[in-house]
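input
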Amino acid sequence: MRDSTRLIATLIVWSAFTINLGIIAAVMVASTVDMDFAGGLIVLGLIFIFALAATVSTNSIWSGARNSVEEPPRSSKAKRTLERSRVERLIESLDDDEVYELEALLLRRDDHEHPLPR
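output
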């Protein structure tokens, strides 16, 4: 994920948080009922939960996406290295006669794919 995309996602998360705070404040102002202590604790709890959700979302946007972007190049390089080392180990395990047979086989295949003009 690019930084501009992360920034937009972060702005969306915190805009949603701000809108939720605005709705809670508007409901409290428009309410004709006096709020007791328990009601105040509920409102503070909701605000805390929304803030925690926004913080966790922001953290996952900025750190989680970076980790997922870095993994594929490492794994593909590891595959190439592993593949190369397997072939190298196979060739090193062959004796001289087997190496000559392999070379002849590869040359025959190359001749069939690209025959010389006569």
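quick obs: Residues 4 and 10 are 10 Å apart (CA to CA).
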